[in-house]
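Before relying on records like the one below, remember that each one covers exactly one chain. Contacts with other chains, cofactors or solvent are not represented anywhere in the record.
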Amino acid sequence: MLYLKSYCYSKHELPFVIANLIEGWDYIDQLCLYEYNFTHTGIKKDYEMETVIHLIPENLLSKLYYKKVDITNYVEYAYNDGKLIHSLNEPIQRSWFFNDPSFNLQDDDIIIDHDIDEIIYKNSYKPLIEELNKVKKPLSIKLNQFFFKNNYLWTNCNFSSPTIYKYYMVKNNTTRKKGILIKNLRDLPNKTTKQYGCHMSWVMPIEYMLKKFHKYSHPEFRKFADKEVLQKAIDDKVYVFDLRKPFNIEVLDFTDEKIPSYLQKDNIFDYITKP
């Protein structure tokens, strides 16, 4: 079995769910998508994906496992506490798959451990699996990094947070927090030899960027939660979070193969604004 293990927090991520299903269709057995009723910061939230999941084409649904999870008893309020976010709230959300009784994982099952805005290209699955079989150890997957827009390619960014592994490689990790088995496998030292997909980082409408600042695992960025500041950063192609950071953006044509086929259009979020 090959599992895409992921989670979501906002309805703006729907295009990335669909793109992952389309790109992985010939290889994956299941996209396991979890949504929680609390943010990384420990604030209660609605199950947003539930409100738009009916927009996924019916022919893709057979490989989607979407589960809403109540984590009231496991997370703690951590709005201004980055340490608690990274040590408890985020690991619990990243690890629920391993605590889900719906799955009886076998040693040779392959797991691609990713965020839903990280997408493996259709033509990359076969060589990626071949590389895993050759190396025989968990690998971080190099991705093309997009930023702000789904055709803004950050050419001088080295991004490799998602991972691929076989279950036997990680099953002996028995760390538990509040009774939950934790396997938080991101940013590993062994990396793939090339880029096998893309990361659509901060690719969302501005109003969703403003919401993200209060939900996700980096409270230190919250000072940039200003609509005008963000719009200027997008227009000027500036990495607003650290002006010292090299930020070379190449604006790709939407037909470029580095963009997954479903995302090769200007407004991928039109479903949010439609009545």
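The chain has a mean pLDDT of 96.
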